[in-house]
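Researcher: Sequence recovery benchmark, item below. Answer with residues only.
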């Protein structure tokens, strides 16, 4: 039995550790050959909240809620199961359509045009999964964190690196507007751009490191 957190500070700490634990789970799962499904999304949520808030960890919400600073109203809680089952069918189709993607992205004798086109398809799937979660908002809390980690699971499964979309302070509005743009116009471009930027930031770091290593040898 997990003891309930006694203070707000303790709760925050447990949630922060939960996110680290969930990121590790994502990394390990991405490297495995296990199939990604909506159940995996629930597992990510469970990893985040199992110490901080065990009652909601990995479970769909049983109440209706609003999203702070957003006009998007998440669906009635009684619809979540069906909606997530629909997403599951779509997800499996999209994953199947990408079954050669990892080989192409990691492959040695593949044209850059083909790699680029495949990376783009992977990023679109990551954005779609991200938004599917935040739109339905299936959990009582932690939908954003779960969605961002689920997007990383897609990126990492196909040989890319997990990113950190900036959602705090001055970056908060841009992230929220990117989601609102999908709500209103089914336009994924702003969210896809955020993912590209996150990747660029990570890969630039990697490239600089490798270049440095080469120079010193
Ligand atoms: N217009 C919108 N449409 C869909 N989803 C949205 C919209 N605005 C915000 N969201 C999502 O809702 C999340 C907030 O919901 P929730 O509190 O359940 O997640 P969280 O993980 O606790 O929050 P945070 O992302 O701030 O850590 C935001 O992070 C974002 O991902
Ligand atoms: Mg929250």
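Model:
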């Amino acid at each position: 039995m997990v003891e309930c957190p006694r203070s707000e500070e303790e709760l925050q700490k447990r949630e922060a550790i939960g996110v680290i634990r969930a990121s590790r789970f994502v990394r390990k799962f991405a490297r495995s050959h296990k199939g990604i499904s909506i159940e995996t999304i629930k597992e990510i949520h469970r990893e985040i909240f199992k110490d901080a808030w065990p009652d909601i960890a990995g479970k769909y919400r049983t109440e209706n809620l609003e999203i702070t600073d957003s006009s998007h109203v998440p669906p009635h809680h009684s619809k979540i199961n069906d909606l997530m089952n629909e997403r599951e069918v779509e997800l499996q189709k999209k994953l199947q359509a990408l079954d050669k993607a990892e080989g192409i992205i990691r492959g040695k004798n593949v044209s850059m045009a083909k790699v680029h086109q495949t990376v783009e398809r992977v990023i679109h799937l990551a954005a779609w999964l991200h938004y599917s979660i935040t739109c339905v908002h299936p959990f009582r809390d932690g939908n954003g964190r779960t969605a961002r980690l689920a997007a990383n699971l897609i990126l990492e499964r196909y040989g890319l690196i997990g990113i950190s979309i900036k959602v705090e302070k001055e970056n908060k509005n841009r992230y929220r507007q990117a989601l609102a743009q999908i709500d209103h116009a089914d336009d994924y471009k702003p969210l896809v751009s955020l993912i590209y930027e996150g990747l660029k930031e990570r890969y630039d770091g990697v490239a600089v490191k490798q270049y440095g290593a080469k120079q010193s040898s």
